[in-house]
Amino acid sequence: MSLKPSPLAPAGFPDLPPVAGARLAVAAAGVRYQGRDDVLLAAFDPGTTAAGVFTRSKTAAAPVLWCRRALAEGAGAARGLLVNAGNANAFTGAAGEAAVTTCVEAVAKVLDCAPQAVHVASTGTIGEPLPAPRIVAAVEGLAGRLGSADYRAAATAIGTTDTFPKGATRTCAIDGVPVRINGIAKGSGMIAPDMATMLAYVVTDAALPAPVLEALLKRGVATSFNAITVDSDTSTSDSLMLFATGAAGNAPVEDPRDRRLKGFRAALDDLLKDLAHQVVRDGEGATKFVEIRVRGATSQGAAKAIGLAIANSPLVKTAIAGADANWGRIVMAVGKSGQRVERDRLKIAIGGHLITDNGAPVAGYDEAPVAAHMQGQEIRIEVDCGLGRGAFTVWTCDLTHGYIDINADYRT
Amino acid sequence: MSLKPSPLAPAGFPDLPPVAGARLAVAAAGVRYQGRDDVLLAAFDPGTTAAGVFTRSKTAAAPVLWCRRALAEGAGAARGLLVNAGNANAFTGAAGEAAVTTCVEAVAKVLDCAPQAVHVASTGTIGEPLPAPRIVAAVEGLAGRLGSADYRAAATAIGTTDTFPKGATRTCAIDGVPVRINGIAKGSGMIAPDMATMLAYVVTDAALPAPVLEALLKRGVATSFNAITVDSDTSTSDSLMLFATGAAGNAPVEDPRDRRLKGFRAALDDLLKDLAHQVVRDGEGATKFVEIRVRGATSQGAAKAIGLAIANSPLVKTAIAGADANWGRIVMAVGKSGQRVERDRLKIAIGGHLITDNGAPVAGYDEAPVAAHMQGQEIRIEVDCGLGRGAFTVWTCDLTHGYIDINADYRT
């Protein structure tokens, strides 16, 4: 499938210097796509810790089941990461689990590590047997070329319907020691925020125990990957992992709330949000990036539910695609969220222009500046419920003919 | 807006004879549309009882608020029904409530009845003031022409983006006395099953107390209007009302579970399902009618949640639009439902062809007959969770370019 780059794509892939302790290689294994890299192998130095958050789907793919088990059995140790694009190895039964074992053992052998230190992911079509032999055949060559690929090549190799590779980098300090964080992600459809969405990998040279990584990741994902939606559909393969090689040499920090981690937390959160926004900007068929800020709700959960009701409404999303300032559909979506609202306290603004108050349009409402805002690529919707202190922000994109084009015949 | 008839439209509007005790009239009041009837007045003989189910939206429209109150204060009496198309009188604040009062009082005057016996509904754009004077100006003329309109004209007058008028009729007997039930409906977008969907009115000449009507309606709606979805969006105006004029002269029945009502219950349920299916068949942009049967779930609620997760998935709906037998997306949707499933017990069939079992495609799976079924206009998806006795069937349509065309610029 050849797709035009999203009109919302960033100007270019950012400059991601290597992270000490992590080496990358990519290969064209022909899992499904021809003539492009489709397998990524990352190798981490001994002592690397890891944490992950995964799809909450009840039909999670075999690689997700493996990673959960490996993280638990291996106490968060990580030496290798193997990702393929083109086949999700989901709903493939016992054969799918055997394929994971085969791939994991191949990587464990070339990296000379325990299988539990090898993490895997597959993304692509659901329900087709994974051609593990093709991947295994590529592993030895990948091991011989570790360090030859950069993060851009890695992000490109794991993409499917993505129209641009997604990456971000941040620097910060832990207790005065400089630390780098790199992240890559893939994803543009089957994006809904009940988990880490699609595949994202973050690598840092910080020295942090696995439980600290896990706490920081869970915290960071709540307002980044778990706050985006493209189409309300939840993947069987969603995986977000954070690897810390320890090469930076900072002093150990055992408590995720330790104030010495303040800068790291902020940098990680910022990077996760950056990657999550890139996924939305590559939403299938997207032509507009939409931020929905909800406040004044009875709780943060209520604010999130209202935000997602707006973000997932096909009628809101098609109105945005048509640059139609049809705020009545926002009222509808707020109403269907099931959360407590009071018509006469509800304030709705688009592009900073207040539209409703006291249960009706504001006196002398002028649609012209709102319509002008709707013509842009960056749409901002604000909802104030006027009831409490619950606030949450979600991000989404519009629903266009492009989404139908991409998905009405994905497999052919 | 001029739309081509849905390819899923029935051959024609069925023959709906009058129901004794109910008279109809329509008029072109110019609420929003020009050159077409947009107001319906129904008058019921004294003694008519009524029940209604309404949107669960937290931003319900002013007419919905009125009907709930009128039914409670008037003990289910009904003498008049006034419906306009083109303006939903939703999110119109105190002015919207005043507009309802104005219209209700005008009808109460011409029909010489209590305001609480007058029921109203408005459907169309949200957030614009209802031009009540135009409607009131039409009421006196309507009252002089009662009985001049048939059910087809009534169904046509209340339509908005509908491409065909929706009606159904059934006959049955209560205790040997013949009874007729007529129903009309409108709706094609903003259709989601958390309530009676959009506007539907059912009139019978049976003699039944209002509490019995209410019980029968709530029961019937659960597996008809509350089992359909077009786009997962819930209207602010959904109203389904049942009026019983008593003209048939059957003996009183006070218990909705009375066995003498067996035939009436079956006829009503069948009529409601017929109307609900017509709404789906007129789903905005629909080219395929989809039945999703779920069984073997841990409860009926779980089966419904799984069915709706499939029916509301944009990826499933676009695959159906493209006639793509992409059953992996059904697996995805089952997984995101949040309901308990076990991969290895899940059976999925399309068009009667079993596709998955034991957590993977069946041995020797042949896609050809499934692909042939997907080319048709009537798609049947079956999911057996293999866990319990919970079963539910939902109906939906596909998601096509037509939906985007209709909704990206609805107001212009």
Characteristic terms for this protein:
alpha+beta, homodimer, Ubiquitin-like (UB roll), 2 domains, five-stranded mixed beta sheet, 11 helices, L-amino peptidase D-ALA esterase/amidase, 412 residues
What report would you give on this structure?
2 copies of one chain form a homodimer. With 412 residues, chain A is of the alpha+beta class. The first copy, chain A, folds into 2 domains: 22-281, 4-Layer Sandwich (L-amino peptidase D-ALA esterase/amidase), CATH 3.60.70; 289-407, ArgJ beta chain, C-terminal domain (Ubiquitin-like (UB roll)). Helix content of chain A is 31%, strand content 24%. The first copy, chain A, has helices spanning 62-73, 93-111, 132-144, 151-157, 210-222, 262-281, 300-311, 314-321, 328-336, 367-374, 401-407; strands spanning 22-27, 39-44, 49-54, 80-87, 118-125, 166-174, 177-186, 199-204, 239-244, 289-297, 347-350, 353-357, 360-361, 378-384, 390-397. Chain A has a 6-stranded mixed sheet with strand order 13-12-11-14-10-15. In chain A, strands 3-9-8-7-6 form a 5-stranded mixed sheet, with helices on both faces. In chain A, α2 (93-111) runs parallel beside α3 (132-144), α5 packs across α6 (262-281) and α7 packs across α9. Chain A is globular, with a radius of gyration of 22 Å. In chain A, 63% of the residues are buried. At the A-B interface, α2, α8, α9, β13 and α11 of A face α2, α8, α9, β13 and α11 of B.
